[in-house]
Specification:
This protein folds into 2 domains: 64 residues, Herpes Virus-1; 266 residues, Leucine-rich Repeat Variant (Alpha Horseshoe), CATH 1.25.10.10. It is built from 22 helices and 3 strands. The chain has a 3-stranded antiparallel β-sheet. Helix 5 packs parallel to helix 8 and helix 8 runs parallel beside helix 10. The protein is an all-alpha fold. The longest helix is centred in the last third of the chain and has 25 residues.
């Protein structure tokens, strides 16, 4: 392949943004932008402390070899005209959509059309497309636009695209939310956004617990009173099934960090989870074990135990979760529910009385005759023993 031919057919993704030549040794900055090593080293050695494309200040000036992009370029060079034409078309198409979103000359309608197309593309998974989304820093771009654009329609659609991209891309760009001004906007969208916007933000919170890259962000969000209050409010809105489920998933994600749990209790997480579990069986079906898992983590704290005991229907709701044997997942729910009652009933006589009044003894006997696992049955026997011994002890004291 001659030089003229290569020059004409180089996909935009394979060009260095500085030299505009084919990337020979692609390296990536902390902003997610990729350059040829020689070009970016000249830029940095000249005393520049910003990213040439985004003009963001470089909090970390180190450069990291981009092996994925290097592999794609090598594949393109080796195959020459045999390189799958659809791949080049995908690169150019995604690049043009990115330009449409970035350009100050693009109208709002034009940008909305670009988002709709990105949504469709992200539905069709393939490893090459995943690499393109990563190399073109789509997550970074869409997040920046969410925090900069005042159109609620655009924000809702951009967040919907982000949610679709989350399983496909590196999650490090999410850390920009830790910035004070962006966190403020994030909270404002949770408070005042549309139901779809709030649901998408909950999915975003959920994703922060899936990567070590975003653990610190998970801690920041989990210690924001307003963030917790809003996701609790969503979980309680059981008439809105999708947003209620998203609220539970967000709480579960934040609860995965021990450092978040006290603030979750203070923010009303127990009330939100109990409201969710008190909803219809249809609503509970898929996420009842996850909801009980939140309670299990929170009752390790004294404030968590008090929250369940003092809730008007707290103990009664947990008792209802004890005998759920429709499938293996709900046996898991049973095990967690029995474990929660064991923890609370050891310390609180009122909890024992309420549990007995709510029919826990019958529930446990049914559970012991079911096909649940040995761990669940062991915990059920321990709870029965505890309730009987405490009951006899309290009866003797009264005499």
């Amino acid at each position: 392949m001659n030089e003229a031919r290569i020059e004409i057919t180089i996909p935009h993704l394979f060009r260095c943004p500085i030299s505009l030549d084919l990337l020979e040794d692609p390296v990536t900055l902390c902003t997610g932008q990729t350059y040829d090593r020689s070009s970016i080293e000249k830029w940095l050695s000249a005393g520049n402390l910003t990213c040439p494309v985004t003009m963001q200040k470089l909090h970390d000036p180190s450069i990291v070899p981009n092996h994925t992009l290097r592999h794609l370029i090598d594949q393109w060079l080796q195959l020459g005209h045999q390189f799958h034409p659809g791949n080049s078309a995908t690169i150019d198409y995604l690049t043009s959509l990115k330009h449409a979103l970035q350009s100050p000359d693009s109208s709002l309608d034009h940008k909305l059309q670009a988002l709709h197309k990105i949504q469709l593309l992200s539905d069709e998974y393939c490893s090459f497309k995943r690499s393109c989304f990563n190399q073109l820093s789509y997550l970074t771009l869409l997040l920046q636009l969410v925090f900069e654009t005042r159109s609620m329609e655009f924000t809702e659609l951009a967040l919907s695209c982000i949610v679709k991209l989350l399983p496909l891309v590196n999650l490090d760009p999410l850390n920009m939310i830790k910035d004070e001004s962006k966190l403020s906007t994030f909270v404002s969208l949770l408070e005042k956004g549309t139901t779809k916007t709030k649901t998408s933000l909950c999915h975003l919170i959920d994703s922060t617990a899936t990567s070590t890259q975003t653990q610190e962000l998970c801690h920041v969000l989990g210690n924001s009173r307003k963030v917790i209050e809003e996701i609790v409010r969503l979980a309680r809105e059981i008439q809105e099934e999708e947003s209620s489920k998203a609220g539970i998933k967000a709480m579960s994600a934040l609860c995965s960090l021990q450092s978040n749990r006290e603030s979750l209790v203070r923010g009303g997480a127990i009330d939100g989870v109990i409201a969710y579990m008190s909803g219809s069986d249809k609503l509970q079906k898929n996420l009842a074990p996850m909801a009980m898992g939140i309670i299990e983590k929170l009752v390790v704290l004294e404030s968590g135990k008090v929250g369940v005991v003092n809730h008007p229907s707290g103990i009664q709701t947990v008792v209802k979760m004890v005998f759920r044997v429709c499938n293996n997942q709900e046996y898991c729910c049973s095990e967690v529910a029995v474990g929660v009652l064991l923890v609370i009933c050891r310390d609180y006589g009122v909890a024992r009385e309420e549990a007995i009044g709510a029919g826990i003894l019958t529930q446990l006997l049914f559970l012991l005759q079911s096909q649940c696992g040995n761990k669940t049955k062991t915990k059920a026997r321990m709870l029965l023993k505890l309730l009987r011994s405490k009951w006899n002890q309290e009866s003797n004291n009264k005499l």
